[in-house]
User: Which sequence fits this backbone?
């Protein structure tokens, strides 16, 4: 069961002003691709993990936000191709995701993003 989604711009509860500025600076077609990509990642997690209490958090990140949160310099968050989900399980298991996505534990959340090289 998904909880109310945080904005794709917020990052672990931090205000996402720099992320919003990055998004608004992009051409409309690219913004649309990022928004649809974020929705598809969230739908894949929700459909394949019915009944799990999750909360979507970080999606698109500006480089400064990514660095503050310990993200890699080539993070898929920088392109809007990854989304983090806070979990509330006592014994957290990775999310079940389609083959084209990967699920990696990161602090108190699961990072779900597109696999590279596919």
Assistant:
């Amino acid at each position: 069961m998904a909880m109310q989604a945080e904005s794709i711009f917020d990052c672990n509860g931090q205000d996402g002003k720099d992320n919003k500025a990055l998004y608004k600076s992009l051409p409309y077609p690219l913004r649309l691709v990022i928004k649809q990509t974020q929705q598809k990642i969230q739908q894949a997690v929700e459909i394949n993990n019915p009944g799990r209490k999750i909360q979507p958090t970080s999606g698109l990140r500006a480089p400064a936000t990514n660095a503050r949160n310990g993200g890699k310099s080539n993070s898929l968050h920088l392109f809007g191709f990854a989304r983090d989900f806070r979990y509330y399980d006592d014994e957290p298991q990775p999310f079940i995701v389609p083959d084209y996505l990967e699920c990696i534990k990161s602090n108190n959340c699961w990072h779900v993003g597109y696999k590279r090289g596919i």
Notes: The chain has a mean pLDDT of 83. Strands lie at 54-56, 82-87, 101-106, 109-114. The two ends are 29 Å apart (CA to CA). The chain has one domain: 17-114.
